[in-house]
Amino acid sequence: MNRKESNNMSLILEIEQKRSRMLEVAKQKGFNLLHPDVLRASQELDKLIEKQMKQIRKRNEQTE
Fold first, then answer.
1. By three-state DSSP, how is residue 1 classified?
2. Residue 42 contacts residue 54 (beta carbons within 8 Å)
3. What is the pTM of this model?
4. Confidence of residue 1 (pLDDT cuts 50, 70, 90)
5. Are 4 and 41 in contact (CB under 8 A)?
6. Contact status, residue 44 vs residue 18, Cβ threshold 8 Å
């Protein structure tokens, strides 16, 4: 596995961990999706997903 693949796998794992954490927080807060802690966890997850999408877009542009 090369460095790019390793970084990609690391990001995927981080996204999965953040998603699990967000669900845990939501459950703790009675699934109140407007609770500040739930919103914060969701925003952190969004940032990671955005980072992944940028990497995918960049990789696709390089292969065109």
1. coil
2. no
3. 0.86
4. confident
5. no
6. yes
